Amino acid sequence: MKARDLARNVTERDLVWLAVIVAIAIVLRLPGLTTGLWRDEGSTYFDATAPSLAGALREIRLAEINPPGFFLLMRGWLALAGTSDLTMRLPAFVFGILVIPATWALARQAGLRGPAALVAAALAALGPAGIVLGSDARPYTCAAFLAALATLAAFRVVEAPRSEPPAPAMWVYGATAVALEYVSYTGLLLTFGLALGALAATVVEPGLRRRALALVAASAGSALALAPWVLSLRGVPRVTPEWLVPLGRDQLVGRVFEQFGFVVPTAFMHVQYSVALLAAFAVALASRRASPAVITGTVALVIGLGVEAAALLREPRYAFVFTPLAGVLCLVALTALARAGAAFVAGRERNVRTGLAAALGFALAVSVVQGAHVQISAWRDAVSGRPRSGMRSLVADARPQLGPRTLLVVAPDYLGPSLGYYLRDGKGAAVVGFANASQPEHFRCCAAWRRTALVVAAEREILVRAHGFARVAFVYDPGAVDRGTVPYSAALQLRAHLARDLPILRDRRYAGEFEPAALTLFAVPGGS
């Protein structure tokens, strides 16, 4: 459908309802702007505020699993707006809001009209993951917004009439694809999937072949545009995902469904619900000839989430880039399912396909009713405004004791970025890490965690360095557990060892939804 036709079919009522949905989304996300920054957001601060641009790029190469785009954007923003909790989170907040109208436009391009497109926008506005990540100073919402724009342009290319030149939409696709890939490596999965999806769509639309090949070329070009950054990573000792739990071959299928569960518009029964929706989508494809856009998007979603499952990226934040596309495809499936089910119930068309549609619709309705309390609880948690990190409260409470006469030890080192962020103003204690002794505010998952006699060696080093200090402030994660090959629980063992060597002045815990923190203050015998 032509872009002007899409615009002509938009009613004033559609725009009013879209504005209402956006307003609700803003209200739901506002409480998140006032919660404390946690460790990943602390890393964003140190990436974006390095003394020089070259230093910023070096930090990103060393410590991030994302390209530099979002962090360079934050660098410019923070230079203008300052580095408060609010200014740190505001860009992600704005991108999170922009995802909503972008999803609505994507739904319309996929063939949804009126209420259905608005429901897709509402899913983007009300999803718990979107509410939480909408105030997280990380690249996720920026990537999701760019992904929605790139997918919208790709849909426009494959849906445009043959008489209409594809160049404008192709240029938009190429530009947004490059921007996306410089914000998130996952963007490569999306653009690769969209290219293969366009080729798959030529099975039902042979006349689409030239446009599909042009989309493949544009996707390849965007990947080549990322090559200078990828080549710059050669020889750089990068952070490695040693905290990821290995995946057995027998677990892969379940993990793929789990990934789909992260992007479906519910917070309950993830795996079961995603299986049901996939079955519903099969019915949708069978109920009517699928459009090239729907085929393109389906292939892209399956490829992207499948690769993420194999790569052990088992958190909603990693899958979030696919949520605009997933929400739209869910609505495509459900509207087709509703039509087929209604035809069966009304007796207009009773066969195996429509009977399956009616059964699936009933099963999904029962699931929604049974899981409503879980969904409500997820929304309540998302908008609660509870502290995401205990570090802000810890530093505010203990600042009088964190002066130059205090040796501050961070364990595990992943607490370093948020601690460093909240200690950034003024001169405070000397800070050392557990495994990463220097600059613990720049977290690295390093091989030092696998040193033999790690705890004993760290204890000895701390006691030696404590000479000349009056106190040792031991900041730790009270719930530290081993993850992957990293023995994070050694931090608790180190605290127990220090408690045998030094008298405890105070010990207190500080709640944090993502990052609980605790502080044990030790006295140093003979220290002044």
Provide a brief overview of the structure:
The chain is mainly alpha-helical and 528 residues long. It folds into 2 domains: 3-34 and 84-235 and 244-382, no CATH class; 391-523, Rossmann fold, CATH 3.40.50.
Distance between the termini: 77 Å
Which outline best applies? elongated
Task: Give the percentage of residues in beta strands.
Answer: 5-15%
Compute the gyration radius: what is it? 26 Å
Low-confidence stretches: none
Mean pLDDT: 85
Kindly name the structural category: mainly alpha
Number of helices: 24
- Describe the strand arrangement of the main beta sheet, using strand numbers: 2-1-3-5-4
Taken in chain order, the helices and strands follow as HHHHHHHHHHHHHHHHHHHHHEHEHEHEE
Helix proportion: 55-70%
Q: For the report, how would you describe the main beta sheet?
A: 5 strands, mixed
How many domains is the backbone divided into?
Answer: 2
Q: Number of DSSP strands?
A: 5
